[in-house]
């Protein structure tokens, strides 16, 4: 069990996910530091003990109270820019899959091995088997090989949806008439769940995402042997 998963961000299973979590922790630490400093200062000022009656100015003090905020802003801004470029960049990778959002299900297309186009609907609560997650299980989950760079192309058929996997730190808007790309990578096998994250209508809450990361052998068997609708 991962003890902090319940109060912290979920464990990231991808490289840039670690960077995102680090950045989140660092920003939060900076925020707490600033908040504490401001609170202490306002508390100290309220006591009237520190009111300066005749203040002649100090270049050193002015330098410090300019330098420290600028330093904090730069130390937050630089990693933020770095992350932005890291996440924006998409490359061809070893496999390409297309994700299409519909009202209200996802469909996955791929042409690397055999052309397939499968729809992925939520399993209704009454059909759930023991151990399955309510509102998260789908009939056809996306099966991908782990430790492989995969390019996803995300678009929508009708309205804006958002393809989201918190455990992989992925969130890409599916916009009709536009093809968004993002690379997906997991360094371990596993089962990851997500939900549409853009209010898209009546059944918005009932179009979950389920991605299974398996080894290449299982993946090839899945892609070549099964017949997709
Ligand atoms: Cu949606």
| SS element count, helices | 3
Bound molecules: copper (II) ion
CATH superfamily of the largest domain: Cupredoxins -  blue copper proteins
Oligomeric state as shown: single chain
Q: Could you tell me the strand content as a percent range?
A: 25-35%
CATH topology of the largest domain: Immunoglobulin-like
Q: What is the spatial order of strands in the main beta sheet?
A: 3-2-1-5-8
Distance between the termini: 37 Å
- Number of domains in the coordinates? 2
Number of strands: 10
The gyration radius over C-alpha positions equals 24 Å
Low-pLDDT parts are none
Q: Name the CATH class of the largest domain.
A: Mainly Beta
Q: Can you name the CATH architecture of the largest domain?
A: Sandwich
Label the structural class.
Answer: alpha+beta
Rounded mean pLDDT score: 87
What does the model show?
By secondary structure, the chain is an alpha+beta fold. The protein has two domains: 15-88, Helix Hairpins; 95-225, Sandwich (Immunoglobulin-like), CATH 2.60.40. Helix content is 31%, strand content 25%. The protein contains three helices and ten strands. It has helices at residues 15-46, 59-88, 216-225, and strands spanning 95-102, 105-110, 116-120, 142-145, 150-156, 161-165, 170-174, 180-184, 190-195, 208-214. Strands 3-2-1-5-8 form a five-stranded mixed β-sheet, with no helix packed on it. Strands 4-10-9 form a three-stranded mixed β-sheet. Strands 6-7 form a two-stranded antiparallel sheet. Helix 1 packs antiparallel against helix 2 (59-88). It is elongated. The protein starts with 14 loop residues before the first helix and ends with a helix. The mean pLDDT is 87. It binds copper (II) ion (CU). Copper (II) ion is lined by residues 101, 161, 196, 198, 200, 204, 207.
